[in-house]
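WARN  no MSA supplied for this record, continuing single-sequence
INFO  ligand: iron/sulfur cluster
INFO  echoing inputs
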Amino acid sequence: MALLEVRDLSVSFHTPDGVVEAVRGLSYDVERGKTLAIVGESGSGKSVSTQTITGLTRGAQISGSALFNGNELLGASASTLQKVRGAQIGMIFQDPLSSLHPYYTVGWQIVEMIRAHRKETSKKAARARAAELLGLVGIPRASQRIDDFPHQFSGGMRQRVMIAMAMALDPALLIADEPTTALDVTVQAQVLEVMRTLQQEFDTAIILITHDLGVVAEMSDDVVVMYAGTVMEKAPRRTLFYLSHNPYTKGLLASLPARGGRRGRLTPILGTPPSLIDPSERCPFAPRCPSAFDRCWHERPRLDPVSHDAEHTSACWLPHDVAGGLDDPVPARGGSPVDVNPAPETQEESA
Ligand SMILES: Nc1ncnc2c1ncn2[C@@H]1O[C@H](COP(=O)(O)OP(=O)(O)OP(=O)(O)O)[C@@H](O)[C@H]1O
Ligand code: SF4
Ligand SMILES: [Mg+2]
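INFO  complex generated
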């Protein structure tokens, strides 16, 4: 059994404008020690789906199942979920300042985190562990910096502090929601390296949410591509990059720069994601899809195996017995990871 088994997860919000279907029928497994990347444009349901699993979506209609270590998380009591968060599932977000309290030292916050879940741990032992963790994530002079406040750290160092805090109780699963989006490329690579090292040391499973295929190429074992709340394609990393099936995935891959560090134009996918208040049963990507045909406008495609490979599924009406990717779209290490859907002003040329 996988560490986390998500099945048919749907999340919707009732709003004055109608029902927002933020996530529809999402299923995936996360294995111990492995990284599952969830990639997709803004608003595709990446954050809502993981927040729902950890009990952090309020006022939503939720259905489906999320078995963590065999225990159902959906519908679990608030106190159970509070125990799971932090102790068994660590979380890192894009903006560490929203998670770290500005008025308390980072050491104090890690110590509190440890003692909230392990009351038997003495303050002295928790403080020693906090210093050890800060050292593990590569904060120089950790035993002194432990008494600094969050604002006294740079963005990259703050993100390391968040990783230390998330790993404090040795969780089996780490959910990292755009952990490096706000950082520049060099610092981003260092923070990812810290996550990878800790993962290997502690056999941690990671769900990595990103809109950056460069990060996916570097970090993931398996990939879920989401669009408008649904899964468009799911595959092991290499299959996704070399043998993608879905036109949406191909569109994301085409936005990567030319390989070998050559300067190449990004090809953003034209158009914008659809409204999530859309009862129609067409393929959600149809209005932007270069391959759309009649059926796509009337029937929502199922997620079916590609080339009879149960590990590779695609929601698309194109024939499933052929898959084919780009030549070698995985960006070379050292080149800058490139947004799959860069903002218009950054679409000019890749670094
Ligand atoms: N409380 C809410 N009420 C109504 N709609 C919501 C609520 N929370 C989220 N949504 C909607 O659900 C959709 C999915 O949001 P989500 O935050 O999961 O996107 P995302 O893929 O994480 O995007 P980003 O890359 O911008 O973080 C969005 O359209 C969002 O507006
Ligand atoms: S089902 Fe049709 S519109 Fe949707 S991705 Fe496939 S070809 Fe494009
Ligand atoms: Mg998000």
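The chain has two domains: 1-88+169-351, 99-168.
INFO  checksum written, moving to next record
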